[in-house]
Amino acid sequence: MDIKHLKALSYKLRKNTIDIIMEGKSGHIGGDMSVMEILVDLYFKQMNISPENAENPNRDYFILSKGHSMEAYYAVLCEKGFLDLADVKERFSKFDSPYIGHPHNTLPGIEMNSGSLGHGLPVAVGLALAAKKKGKKNRVYVVTGDGELAEGSNWEGFMSGAMFSLDNLCCVIDRNYLQISGSTEDVMALDNLKAKVEAFGWNVVVVNDGNDLDEIDAAFEKAKTVKEKPTCIIANTIKGKGSPVMEKKASWHHKVPTAEQYEEIVKDLVKREKELS
């Protein structure tokens, strides 16, 4: 898909994400909105992955380490053909449903159970190292949250990724500066994040607007050209991106909109989708 189509698709999938949350009466809505362009570019432009090759050992691998953004991931997996949107909407967060609030690899298209933060990057390092040792050309992508980086296991992953020269590994940090308890810089300050990750031996690309598909796509393309070291993309995003009702508000980390908020949010999302179509 071309970038123009993907820009509009990002807002369509935000609407689907909101609908999933409304039906399930649960969801980490803020992070769902901030990570959407990253997921869309990966699944519809960058990665060699589809329902048809989901068991092929030469496929690309994706891990959503910030597993609480599962509702956005459901929307993307449905659009890609792994899951059925109507079924997800009807059953999400219901008793005995497979559609729970974090990734679960009993579902098609999901490689790893996540949501217990700090585990995704170390597992991605293992996948990338295994691919290297087997001489495979596939790539491994992992998306972490910035609040998640307080977990020390991530930094072990950064250290190992560089040690083994994993140029087939790309980590994206969804840098929206907010977590459930407030600003990341008040809870566990990360700046200068670029310098920190570079100090661990990684190539680092900073995306000034992580909700701009042109910028995100260019960063992924650049990562593919880097040899002998993994790449970390620091994507500066907006928590709750898509509607002023939600944007840049820590209170929307986990929240179900009221009926009135839902109408206003959907109006904003539909308007933006039409502008981009």
* CATH level-3 fold name: Rossmann fold
Approximately what portion of the residues adopt beta-strand conformation? 5-15%
Please trace the helix and strand order, writing H or E for each element: HHHEHHHEHEEEHHEHEH
The CATH homologous superfamily is named: Thiamin diphosphate (ThDP)-binding fold, Pyr/PP domains
Summary?
It is globular and about 50 Å long. The strands form 2 sheets. A 5-stranded parallel sheet has the order 1-2-3-7-6, with helices on both faces. The protein has a two-stranded antiparallel ribbon with strand order 4-5.
General description of the model:
There is one protein chain. By secondary structure, the protein is of the alpha/beta class. The chain has a single domain, classed as Thiamin diphosphate (ThDP)-binding fold, Pyr/PP domains (Rossmann fold), CATH 3.40.50. The chain is built from eleven helices and seven strands. The protein has helices spanning 3-24, 29-34, 36-46, 70-80, 85-91, 120-133, 152-163, 184-187, 193-199, 213-225, 259-276, and strands at residues 61-64, 140-145, 169-175, 178-179, 182-183, 203-207, 231-236. It has a five-stranded parallel beta sheet, with helices on both faces. A two-stranded antiparallel sheet has the order 4-5. α1 runs parallel beside α5 and α3 (36-46) runs parallel beside α4. The protein is globular. The two termini are 13 Å apart.
Key terms:
277 residues, alpha/beta, five-stranded parallel beta sheet, two-stranded antiparallel ribbon, 11 helices, globular
